[in-house]
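ARCHIVE CARD
Drawer: 12
Card no.: 0347
Subject: one protein chain, sequence and derived structure
Cross-reference: see card 0346
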Amino acid sequence: MNFTDISKYINRLDLIKDTAEQIIKDFEMFGMEIKFSGNAYNAYEELFDQIAPHINKLISTNQQKFMGILYRIDLSDVQIKTAVNENSSESFSTIITDLIIKRELQKVVIRNHYKSK
């Protein structure tokens, strides 16, 4: 399942909440607080606006922690390079933040898929 396949799940409230919980848990492991209001209609923007400053700061101040988060979230070099090439007009931190949210949603969708079988 790639990132384009998850677009049909973006409006499912249960998956959005699970995705937010996953993001909160993963960032908490690195001492960073992310909060979610529970409003699925602006969930992407809400999460993006909180994640982006953390990512931006880590890129410039703590490369090791930045790499640790990417590893924890399971973003590969190939995914990152592809996204950077496809979105060359966006900042690196914007691309990474978008990838984080999409990857976390993808993990939730996959986990729910296998849980239901």
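Annotation on reverse: The two ends are 17 Å apart (CA to CA). Residues 8-115 form one domain.
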